[in-house]
Every structure is written in structure tokens, then in C-alpha cells.
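User: Can you recover a sequence for this backbone? Please restate the input before giving your answer.

Assistant: Of course. Working from this structure:
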């Protein structure tokens, strides 16, 4: 029970803390509302679950064994996040008329695979909390199931927060301030990946 409580705390703090995906969830909730952002919320859980299974199956060992693979992941992920930050700051990321739809379930899942924070979190989660007393496949499935439930909750907080903020930020000037703030959060996320 102690290990479960520790993992739940680690999972919640790790997934609810600011980062690239949460910033995009916030922007989506603000632009499209909570209901239309649910697919992204569920996609986040699905993508994180797939990452846990992949890391438990050995992708994490590959990243440890081939340092250039980790560097490539950081570079690709950082470039993608910088691209998103540019579009968010320019207003295209959260402008109601310029964005046609929120991320789909599969786009939300795929986003986790280029999100360096998700990789770092997942490697730490599997390395620290994979139950050694259980057979590895069962332990990985258990960890994945628990994490996916936690991710739905933490992602929903960000999407609902964005939806609530949209009621306050009705005019273009305020919306622009929020766009720049979200872009700066994304830039800070990229900077934290490299320190």
C-alpha cells in the first residue's frame, strides 16, 4: 500500500505540473471548451499508457544504452514544442477563428511521444515504481492502468481550467495576453528539458 500511495502521489504531481501537454490542454479548453477537449484528455492517457508499456518493454533501456537516441528525442521534441509556442504566441494556437479543431484522441496520444517531459516522467515512473514482485508484463499493465486513470484526472484539471478562463478572457487583448503567457510556459518547458 505504501508503494501504491507513493506512486499515486508521484503520478499526480508529475502529470499535473506545468508542461507542454498541459499548456496545450489549457489552450484547447480555453478555445473549444472542456467537452470538445475530452478527446485530447483521453488521448493523453492513452499516449502515456503506451509510453509506460514501451519503456517497460525496453525502450528506456535503449535510450540509456544509446545516448544519441535521447539527444535526438530532445531535439525533435524541443523543435516541435518551439513550433507550437510560436503558433500559440501568434494567436493561431488558441484563436477561436484560426484553429479548426482541438487535438483528436490519436493526436493527443501521439503528442506524448514527442513530449520530452512525458518521456522523462515515464522512464522515472517505470524505473522507480514497477513492482518487482510481479511478473514484468503484469507489473507494467498494473502501472499503466493506474497511471492512465491519474492522467485523465490531471489532464481534465488543465482542460477545465482553460474552459473556465475562457469566460474571463472574452476580448482580443486579454486573449492575446493569455496566448503569450502560454507560449512562455512552453518555452520554459523546453528550457527545463535542457538543464
Amino acid at each position: 500500500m505504501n508503494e501504491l500511495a507513493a506512486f499515486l502521489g508521484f503520478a499526480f504531481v508529475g502529470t499535473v505540473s506545468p508542461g507542454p501537454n498541459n499548456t496545450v490542454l489549457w489552450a484547447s479548453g480555453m478555445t473549444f471548451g472542456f467537452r470538445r477537449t475530452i478527446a485530447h484528455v483521453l488521448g493523453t492517457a492513452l499516449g502515456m499508457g503506451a509510453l509506460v508499456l514501451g519503456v517497460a518493454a525496453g525502450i528506456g533501456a535503449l535510450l540509456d544504452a544509446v545516448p544519441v537516441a535521447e539527444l535526438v528525442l530532445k531535439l525533435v521534441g524541443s523543435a516541435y514544442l518551439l513550433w507550437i509556442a510560436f503558433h500559440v504566441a501568434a494567436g493561431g494556437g488558441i484563436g477561436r477563428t484560426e484553429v479548426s479543431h482541438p487535438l483528436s484522441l490519436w493526436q493527443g496520444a501521439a503528442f506524448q511521444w514527442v513530449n520530452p517531459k512525458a518521456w522523462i516522467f515515464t522512464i522515472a515512473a517505470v524505473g522507480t515504481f514497477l513492482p518487482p514482485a510481479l511478473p514484468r508484463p503484469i507489473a507494467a499493465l498494473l502501472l499503466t492502468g493506474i497511471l492512465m486513470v491519474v492522467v485523465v484526472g490531471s489532464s481534465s484539471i488543465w482542460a477545465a481550467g482553460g474552459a473556465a478562463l475562457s469566460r474571463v478572457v472574452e476580448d482580443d487583448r486579454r486573449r492575446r495576453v493569455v496566448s503569450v503567457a502560454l507560449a512562455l510556459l512552453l518555452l520554459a518547458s523546453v528550457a527545463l528539458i535542457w538543464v
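That completes the design. Residues 92-99 have pLDDT under 50 and may be disordered.
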